[in-house]
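User: I'll paste a sequence; please echo it back and then give the predicted structure.

Assistant: Echoing your sequence first, then the prediction.
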Amino acid sequence: MKLFFHGKLTNTLLLIAFLILMATGIFAYYQIYHLLKSNTWVIHTHNVMETANESLLAVTIAEVKVERYLLAGDKNISQPVPELLQLTKDSIKKLKELTKDNPIQQKRLKVLEPLVKQKINALQKAISYVFPQHKTEATKLIASMEQQKIAQQIRKILLSFNSEELHLLKIRSDNFNKYVEESIKILILFGSLSVILFLISFIFLSYFSMLRNKDQKKLQELNKQLKTSEERFTLATEGARVGLWDWEPGSDYVFYSPFLKKMLGYTEEEFPNTLQSFQNILHPDDNDRLWDLVNQHLQ
């Protein structure tokens, strides 16, 4: 009963440890999912900021190159301008796609897009003038208050755009770090509990195994003693010059000593160890008297 109780306790501890490990696995899957999701948003925000900076840088470099072209008159200076302007267009288009889930940024892009188009048109028109005949017209176009205002508005909107993304980046980075910290703490807690429960279960199993070994040794010793006793009894009955018999009440089995069978004139095969064997050689007139004596002895 004691071993049964201890075994049940060990099984319960192992089951709890197993359930904790399962819960740890489920939690780990949940946390990894959110970590990946948070990390995706962090990467997404970096991508948006890089694209915004790319568009601002492209239009700024294009503007500088046009101004240098108008000053120096070297057509080679203006060669990269069309590519830079196309890069600006592509960047704005990409920003619209990346921020389609953010209505605030979409609103900024809605204002920014026509300004960028105006700036691109002005720069394209400036480098299309024949130099140096129309240098004055091109310079006035680029240096006009309207173009200066457009350039300032573009920079202001893109800076506000990046400021919003920086704010989102902080929030998303904080969420990512929070999931990392929570994951580490809870995984350490669950892992420690599992290890402790497994260690306790191992100690119990070792203890129960020791008890079981002791019981097995005792049983082996008893079996050895019983076998020795049976051997001595068999030796005593075989060596005795008297006939012995031993009946187990309620059963048909009766032990007849070899000498008793020999005294009666029978061999082992002719005289089985059953109650019927004795009754077969008993005179019918002695049957009732025999059982009266047996009952008196048993009482």
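Confidence is low (pLDDT under 50) at residues 1-5. Helices lie at 2-72, 81-98, 103-128, 135-143, 145-239, 258-264, 275-281, 287-298.
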